[in-house]
Amino acid sequence: MTETADPDVVVYGATLAGIMAALRLKLRGYTSLVLEPTGHVGGIVAGGLVKSDTPGVPAALAGLTQDRFFAGIGAEYAADGLDDPKAQYLFEPKVAERVAWRLLDEAGATVLLNARIHDAGDVEVRGGRIVAVRTDDGWRRAGFFVDASYEGDLMAAAGVPYAVGREPASQYGEAYAGFQPARAHRIRSFRPNTGFPVGPVPDSAPGDGDAKVQAYNFRGVLTRAADRLPFPKPDGYDPALYRHLGSLLTQRGIPGLSSIVTHTAALPHGKFQTNQALFIGFDLPGVNWDYPDGGWKRRDEIIAEQVRWHQGMLYFLANDPSLPESFRADARTFGLPPDEFTDSPHGAGFPHALYVREARRMVGEHVFTEHDTQRPNNTKPTAVCCWQYGLDCHIVQYYPEGDDTIVGEGSTTGSFVNAPADLYQLPAESLFPARGSVENLAVPVCFSASHVGILSPRMEPTYGMLGEAAGELAAQSLRTGRAVQDYDYASLAAALSERGSVLELPELEAAA
């Protein structure tokens, strides 16, 4: 559906952040046009990431993100007779998308699907302000813009500075920055230890920066129900690609797929969530390095390769004769759910959204770094939300070492355990460009952070709360006519708190 009148705000990305921004704007009396580059709303929480990470201090998850989205999911299940508090954080994709659409309707947002921004030719900037963006229906003007996409295409097309990959350790003085071979995850007993997906040995020195990003994957959903769909054999399937996975299964004595996907709590209605699971698993390091700046043609190629890897792995686990028949039989007790992702471009039951864990990162008024996640730099005078989660980086690259070791480099500890972070506050200044740049833009997903700095807050609940702050910043800028950089924090804090946002917690004072 389209409207002839231009909106007050254009929101690029119907992610949880974008939805929360639109909802906040509606409550302030402003209209929004939401441009979603894919065919679905809700972002990755409706696209497969259905085991939501929550903060170490539960009260940090607050605002409309908690009260309307996550609690809204819980209410959906309660209405169906499943009154389980955990269901709001462990849910089915179809329920998340249903709640996402409802909130967009409540926000009165006009939503255009498959509306992609490609480059600077799709964005008009004049006098330090974004004036309009191009859609299939023509140019749409607005007074303010929110880039809530995972890719940051609106931000980049508007000429806002950004970073991709890992800064060198020297840039911000971060212990975990850059190439980290000493903290890499090493697994032995691979013979051979080369071949896909293992890449070449890096020629970087410890602490060097690079343009490499942590691995992406599909967060699949599996079922054991009688009507499950069998794992499809993808075009171009090559069992040799899973040689290292097979070696790892044998080495660890893993008896079946059930040992990989049922170790976390089950979703409602007997469904299960896939993630990386093993050292070599559903993640695919390396193939995604072009994704952030690659443009949509290159991104679609990367998505297709990730689909082949994920679908091929499931097919391998259920059918490859190199695995014990007992393992294959166990794998065949699982399948894809026919009631999820029914119109996915990758086949019924398979997620329609690739989990883009990290892409571009704005270089804004304040760059949030590793230091901001640790005392004494964890408190901020202009906080818009609180959060606590470990520094979570998936493997960035595999490479061989010696004659039997595969190195998985990029994590912060060399294991599946994350480096710790204190309870901290995120400042408003990480949500908009530096002074002298674009004056009417907020960026709640690709917000201003270093690679290490974003590792803790790169979670969907945090993005939702930052989206709320972006919506309130937009509303204030529209009301006052001032650049977003000239916002009034007291007014922003009052507006956020009015709808339940938590800007400070007693634990922060205790830790000071």
Automatic annotation (TrEMBL):
GO MF annotation, one: metal ion binding
Record bears the keyword Iron: yes
Keywords: 4Fe-4S, Iron, Iron-sulfur, Lyase, Metal-binding, Oxidoreductase
InterPro entries to which the protein is assigned, alphabetical: FAD/NAD-bd_sf (IPR036188), HdrA-like (IPR039650)
Gene3D superfamilies: FAD/NAD(P)-binding domain
This protein's name: Xanthan lyase
Species of the source: Jiangella anatolica
